[in-house]
Specification:
Helices cover about 25% and strands about 25% of the residues. By secondary structure, the protein is of the alpha+beta class. The chain has a domain at about 30-95: Roll (SH3 type barrels). The protein has a 6-stranded mixed sheet with strand order 4-3-2-1-6-5. The radius of gyration is 15 Å and the shape is globular.
Length: about 110
Amino acid sequence: MVENREFVDNMEARTADSTVDLVRDVIAEQITSRTDIVEGMEARDSNNEFVGGVSVVRPTHFLLDRPMARDVWVPYSAVVEIIEDRVMLSVADLNDMRWENPPLLGNPVV
């Protein structure tokens, strides 16, 4: 319970903008374990639209295999929650994010 009290105290001490950032970071920390996101899970954007499947998992990000689009490395900070076998993302348009893409040919390097 001490950890929760410290969390609340920290939240109250921040402005509205930094509170949003803090909550996002706390959520990301809670689901950044490689055991939470696994290969084969589906990913959905903030509009609950299917955007692809998790194909590779790394310690700080995962590779999203997108149908009819370039695959993209997604940082765990973009994950809002995990519901059963779905990864819910905080963004609506992945193309606007400028996240790194794996090479077109060969194995993903990052």
